[in-house]
Write a structure and sequence with these properties.
This protein has 271 residues and is α/β, with parallel strands linked by helices. The chain has one domain: 3-Layer(aba) Sandwich (Rossmann fold). It contains twelve helices and eight strands. The protein has an eight-stranded mixed beta sheet with strand order 1-2-4-3-5-6-7-8, with helices on both faces. Helix 2 crosses helix 3. It is globular, with a radius of gyration of 17 Å.
Length: 271
């Protein structure tokens, strides 16, 4: 797939795309790129969708923003991309930070979203902090440190494998799985922008993103994910007044990469 560009929310976004039909926007998380969807996107396109996978703001070759990316900015990006791509509505699919983006977007502009899919992140407005949960997400604090990006880049991004092992303990990816991320983060400005999401993170979901919505939602979690629990996703039901489906899969945080065929089958059943 070739890289295309579009200007949205005042930023030049790079994206990969395939297929034709109703728009489906797929958002990646950290540490990742649109290539996280390589095995899933063709299946969605084959079902009759125009699949667009942006490089999130600041992830090369998307433009580096002038400021760190906060929750409100992140929430506006999917809506701005729908406009920039010439559409009225889209199906939104997001993993990790991409899940935060789609949760925020559907709260801001539910009329622009046909259906929302979130992977590995419960709705941020319903999260409850406990000592155990704080320990599991200690990287949120670690990544806020001024030295975090530099330490992450050490030894050819050795931390990539370590963090994947922490979040998906049973996944043993080969080096090829990390090639796209290493290429993206080879630009220090891009790496710094990726950590900017964590620097801008406040522990409290913005009030403007706490609107309940009737847009149908499907959330996925890996049964082997050491970060979240099924009850976290069950509490997220409170934010959706319409259909809200919880899908458990095998794997951990990177469930869509650990078993792309199994994940795709479950996803396509809901499209």
């Amino acid at each position: 797939m070739s890289v295309d560009y579009v200007t949205a929310a005042g930023l030049r976004f790079a994206y990969l795309s395939q297929g034709a039909g109703p728009l489906a926007l797929l958002f990646h998380g950290f540490p990742d790129t649109p290539h996280t969807w390589d095995a899933v996107a063709p299946r969605i396109a084959a079902k009759g969708y125009r699949v667009v996978m942006p490089f999130m703001r600041g992830y090369r070759p998307t433009q580096i923003p002038a400021h760190d990316t906060d929750a409100m900015t992140l929430a506006r990006d999917p809506i701005a991309l729908i406009d920039a791509l010439g559409e009225k509505q889209a199906t939104l699919i997001g993993h990790d930070w991409g899940a935060a983006a789609v949760y925020g977007a559907v709260a801001l502009a539910p009329e622009r979203v046909r259906k929302v899919f979130a992977l590995s992140i419960p709705h941020p407005a319903t999260l409850r902090a406990t000592p155990a949960k704080v320990w599991r997400v200690r990287h949120f604090l670690e990544f806020k440190l001024p030295t975090a990006a530099r330490r992450f880049a050490k030894n050819d991004f050795e931390a990539l494998r370590a963090i994947c092992k922490r979040w998906s303990p049973d996944w043993n990816p080969g080096d090829a799985e990390f090639a796209a991320v290493r290429e993206c983060f080879a630009d220090p400005a891009s790496l710094n922008a990726a950590f900017g999401y964590y620097r801008a993170l406040s522990f409290g979901w913005p009030k403007a993103l706490r609107n309940k919505t009737s847009v149908p939602a499907v959330v996925f979690y890996g049964s082997g994910d050491p970060i979240t629990e099924p009850s976290d996703y069950e509490r997220g039901r409170a934010m959706f007044t319409g259909d809200y489906t919880i899908e458990a899969t095998g794997g951990g945080h990177f469930l869509h990469r650990e078993d792309p065929e199994g994940f795709a089958r479950k996803l396509l059943a809901h499209l």
